[in-house]
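Teaching note: in complex prediction, the entire set of molecules is handled at once rather than each chain in isolation. The prompt given to students was simply: 'Predict the structure of this complex.' The entities are:
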Amino acid sequence: MTYCVAVRVNSGLVLLSDTRTNAGIDNFSRFSKMFTWEVPGERAVVMMTSGNLSIAQGVITRINQAIERSAEDPTIETILNVDSLYHAAELVGEAMQGLQDRYRQSIQADGAGADVTMLVAGQRKGGRLRLFMVYAAGNFIEATDDTVYFQIGEHKYGKPILDRVVSSTTSLEDVVKAVCVSMDSTLRSNLSVGMPLDLCVIRRDSYRFDVRQRIEAGDPKFQAISQHWGAALRSAFSGVPDIIPRIAT
Amino acid sequence: MTYCVAVRVNSGLVLLSDTRTNAGIDNFSRFSKMFTWEVPGERAVVMMTSGNLSIAQGVITRINQAIERSAEDPTIETILNVDSLYHAAELVGEAMQGLQDRYRQSIQADGAGADVTMLVAGQRKGGRLRLFMVYAAGNFIEATDDTVYFQIGEHKYGKPILDRVVSSTTSLEDVVKAVCVSMDSTLRSNLSVGMPLDLCVIRRDSYRFDVRQRIEAGDPKFQAISQHWGAALRSAFSGVPDIIPRIAT
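The expected output is the structure of the full assembly:
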């Protein structure tokens, strides 16, 4: 399984993903689910993937092949030369559709699922910050001020904290904390989501990755968040009013 | 959908359920999912149900019919006269198996799911506090000191808080708060779970329901928990250390 979360607030984009993939419970591996492309000062694009790993890797390969070929032939459209992030999301959707058409029947005949879901986000110079969720069918939706985040994979454990603290005016630093707390709740409650994590931050109108880092299992800052949050939750809980009368014990 | 949670701690049992059932999104109704039986001072038994409503109602009807018939014929085994809660869970499992055998094929031919899962809990005089989760196949597992709670239905949103604050030594009053917070998180994040709620508490060795109440949508104590928890979460969150450096804005 997977947990990836992406947030688009007024001041930028924050994306966080785990790295665990599994087929059954004894066949698990580590694969990055976050992929970034950058032309510093012109555009920064990031994608995160969930679902069938072979399809997801195929999509990333097609995107990279197009970028390589466009060096020779600039008429080839790529996520790095199209005139909008919307168009980039279309290219991702087309690559997904192409791979689904090619493999879906044979994958399903084998008893596995061929679906993938991807998050595509970024900004190009002259454009807006954008965040899209691209479905297996190639269609996609965009985050708005009403719904500032998308999650893919094992999303339920980590949703309540996002619902409570994230809105379009939240600072990027607080969004980073919120996605880390959301991931921490998921890691604690679901074995199929695992460290290390990949984090990236794109500040609005910077057109580059201000943060692009891997958070390893023993990372002291992530551990501090996890421990502080656990203690703060218990302390917050102790202040919650009773619903039934307390009796002497 | 449904959310039911049951906790067995040293000092007693706490159970909380929502009341929403739905088939699709525009066909939803209110049904209690909590059923209680009591011989005050001798035993208290409570069940909560999730899954196919017709099967669940059928199981409850069979249990009640057996109790009625046993007034005439005391050799009929019922959840109120068997010599252990374990045996009561077996009776529930048998009723589930019987109904599944009778309806599963026709329900599935109709495209619906026939599965139900039930939580059975209580204590009889001379016995221990017990909590069982009974599966559709009629088999069941019991809560232990290592795993003090079971959830059925839409369980993921409300799991992190239980993992953080509930253990076998938690007081009943705190367990009630914890299940209310767990339910509140679920209500906020999932439309298929809805107020009002049914709550019951059985104190150890009391063999009766110390609390058996319905919590309506506007209940001031539940609202106080919800509001306090929201505020406390945001306050707890503000104290979480940063993972990326804050920049002047």
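Point out the following to students. The two ends of chain B are 45 Å apart (CA to CA). The longest strand of chain B covers residues 43-51.
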